[in-house]
Each structure stands twice: as C-alpha cells, then as structure tokens.
Amino acid sequence: MDRVTEYILYWLIAANVIAFALMINDKHRAAAGARRISEAALLQWAFLGGAIGTFAASRLVRHKTRKQPFATQMMTLLVLELILLALWVLGLLGPLIAAALAYLPRPA
Q: Residue 91 region, left (φ>0) first, then alpha (ψ -120 to 50), else beta?
C-alpha cells in the first residue's frame, strides 16, 4: 500500500469516527434539551468522508432519520461515498480522475 492510499484510509477512518460521534452527541444533546450541533456541521462531516459514520449513527440511535431535507442529503452523500469507494477499490477512480483532468485548460 502506498503512502497516499494509507493517508486516505486514515482520513476516512477519522472522518467516520468523528461524524459518528457528532451524531451520537447531538442525539444526547437533543434528549437533554441542550444546545445542538448544527445540521450543516453534521452534513459537512458526511461530505468530508464521514457519510458512513453519519448514516450508521443515525440508524443506531434513530436520530434525524425522518428530518427533511437532512435525511435526503445524508443518503445522497452516503450513496456518493459508496460509489467513490467502490471505484477506488476496483482501481477505476484514478483513471477517471486522470481523464477528467485531461480536459482542463493548460496554463499559458
């Protein structure tokens, strides 16, 4: 495993642990009537690679599963993350990125 792959795996693990913990913490804050974690912050961690952790926590503690549009946005990020992970594992993500970068204009 090369260093880049290793760093990406570390980041994904960390992002999912943080996203999971934030969702659990927000559920506890909601039950206690305390100040909540914003939906924007929860979705931001999902976007940054923590969508699996966000989804897992929402199902585990039944938190924000029916809250719209949050639940739809969370599911969308989960599907996108799973697609990207599948492409990465299959070795197809690198060539797709390279092909996309080939279309960018070159600096003069």
A: left
